[in-house]
Amino acid sequence: MPADWRDFFALTKPKVMRLVVFTALCGLLAAPGSIHPVIGFTAILCIALAAGGAGALNMWWEADIDAKMKRTQGRPLPRGTIKPTDARDFGLLLSGMSVMVMGLAVHWLAAGFLAFSVFFYVVIYTMWLKPRTPQNIVIGGAAGAFPPLIGWIAVTGEVTWMPVLLFAIIFMWTPPHFWALALWVKPDYAAANIPMMPNAAGEVSTRRQSLVYSALLLPLSITPWLIGGTGAIYGISALILSGIFLALTVPVGLRRSVDGDGMKPEKKLFAYSILYLFVLFGALVLDRVLAQAGVIA
Ligand code: HEM
Ligand SMILES: CC(C)=CCC/C(C)=C/CC/C(C)=C/COP(=O)(O)OP(=O)(O)O
Q1: Phi first, then psi: what are they for 122, rounded to 5°?
Q2: Are 151 and 25 in contact (CB under 8 A)?
Q3: What average pLDDT does range 234-255 have in this prediction?
Q4: Any residues with CB less than 8 A from the CB of 76 and at least 6 apart, and which?
Q5: CB-based contact 229:165 (threshold 8 Å)
Q6: Which parts of the chain are coiled coil (predicted)?
Q7: Residues 136-154: tens digit of each pLDDT
Q8: Residue 31: DSSP 8-state
Q9: Does the C-beta of 170 come closer than 6 Å to ligand 1?
Q10: Cβ of 277 below 6 Å from ligand 2
Q11: Whose alpha carbon is nearest atom 7 of ligand 2?
Q12: What is the residue with the minimal CA distance to atom 8 of ligand 1?
């Protein structure tokens, strides 16, 4: 069957990237100052297309790995509906064009960070770290943490504490987000010979480490409030959301055997991790918009 637009769309990992784009949009909307709506829209479009291009390059590089894992077998490259060179060219074109447009139309600092994110995800994470070390997603997770910082810089043109904190929050969130899933798809990664933490260091160690990251995420997530970068709407939301995150990580982190329950606590934690980031960044924007409108301090 020949490739159609749906196959190319699937290469951009649209489900994962909608949260990437949402956090970028929130970074842009929460930043102090103003941006022309057309320029703001262009910035978000560039981040979305660059992230999609990076996803396509990841799938091009990992076609053989994806073919070995149940979760990823249905992707266009393992199914053979897209030629590998087409996927590669599509990814290069999307990310290259997005970086250029970001630089020319929005800001070259934002474009520089965007190019670095693509490089970090495709080269540092996908090609270098992922097949080599169980710390792959800890270090590589930085790529997915850049979008709100890029959205922020698109408005302000400079790196300050607030966008760095937003970066740090996603960086700290990534291990419990991903390892919850990695615990129940361990056989997939074993089949593909990828040293994800549960495969390389064992389940008990992965669970403990997830708990450490979730525990650190709680104080980190309220730091924007503590340093006066946000108001109480964000601060209290962060406290509640991160408290629930930690409470859901505790049963995952402390259990030693799985007792045939279909890994329910791990699946619950993974699903909540996604909701968490959507609501946390939504609260940040609400807080800032109300402050700018003079409704709150
Ligand atoms: C290195 C870091 C990360 C790794 C290894 C990772 C891994 C994964 C994996 C394997 C899935 C299952 C997706 C699928 O089956 O296609 C997933 C789902 C998801 N991830 Fe992550 N993730 C990471 C970082 C992020 C970041 C930074 C975000 C957004 C800010 C994100 C958002 C999502 C979302 C929204 C889903 C659910 C997709 C759906 O609805 O099926 N992830 N992640
Ligand atoms: C702006 C920009 C470039 C953003 C990049 C965003 C980014 C790095 C998101 C990371 C999320 C992601 C798709 C992880 C999948 O890991 P994986 O590739 O190991 O998962 P897989 O097994 O599903 O392929």
Answers
A1: -80, -50
A2: yes
A3: 97
A4: 3, 7, 8, 10, 11, 59, 82, 87
A5: yes
A6: none
A7: 999 998 999 999 999 999 9
A8: S
A9: yes
A10: no
A11: 144
A12: 178
Q: Which two tokens stand for residue 161?
A: 């504490």
Is the separation of the CB atoms in 94 and 56 below 8 Å? yes
Give how far the C-alpha of residue 180 lies from the chain's centroid of Cα atoms, to the nearest Å: 15
Of 206, 114, 224, 112, residue with least CA distance to 163: 224
Maximum C-alpha span of the chain: 59
The rounded Å distance from CA 195 to ligand 1 centre is 18
Q: Whose CA is closest to atom 3 on ligand 1? A: 141
3-state secondary structure of 181: helix
Ligand 1 contacts CB of residue 156 (under 6 A): no
Quote the ipTM score.
0.95
What would the pLDDT profile of 103-116 be if each residue is shown by its tens digit?
Answer: 999 999 999 999 99
Q: Using a pLDDT cut of 70, give the percent of the chain over it.
A: 98
In whole angstroms, give the CA distance from residue 269 to residue 244. 10
Local confidence band at 293 (pLDDT 50, 70, 90 cut-offs):
confident
Residue nearest to atom 13 of ligand 2 (CA): 16
Cα(292) to centroid(ligand 1), Å = 32
The rounded Å distance from CA 131 to ligand 2 centre is 14
Query: Is 173 a pocket residue for ligand 2 (Cβ < 6 Å)?
Result: no
